Amino acid sequence: MRLPAAVLALLVLTVIPAHGAPRIVGGVVVDDPDEAPWMVALTTSSGRQFCGGALLGSRWVVTAAHCVQGRTPGSITVVGGRLDLLTDGGSTSVAASYRLVDGYSAPSRGKDIAVLTLVEPMPYRSLPVAAPGVHMSGSVGTVYGWGRQAENDTNKSPLLHKAYIPIVPDEQCAATYAQFDARAMFCAGYPDGGIGSCIDDSGGPFVIDGRLAGIVSWGLGCARPNAPGVYTRVTTYLS
To answer: Considering 112, 170, 200, 201, which one is annotated as catalytic?
Structure first.
């Protein structure tokens, strides 16, 4: 499938295992509205945030497949231009449709990416996708989300948070997760844990040098030591 020229071509997508609902732990509040104008929240019609996403264009949002699979498009409301979800600023639009990658079944099996088409366009700058040959090993990326801030939290902040997280070598990730597929995913985290994505951060962007490199997908708990978060390798599915 190919999106219009201004957007990117989606090739694949996928469902979430019981352990794979990430959020941001150990991050900081994003207080500059110009830092991430492409950041959006996925909410229910009643306003409950359940995932994040990023604008690929005025009418296209990229998120995790497990965030939307099984949901009716009209039940998904996308909120943009709003750092604090308790306010009523910014713009909202219902999803008209979404596309998953053929063969998606679970985040731990890869293809955990989806593109939503919106009914109403968003008036915000979109996030470009990283080049296919982007150097990942040793890079530090920024992950964004409204998810929980501790693994056992029952509450979460309505404020957008971010965290800076180093990418883990593929060999190290494969030694941690038997399901790891280097073509479909990559890992990021600190050996001592304490900083990472967590529940309700799923679908949010992992950004390197101002470009979309990953999508919050799955992991073991939240920011645990020696258990890095796993992110969809976007360049495998978007061009």
So the answer is: 112
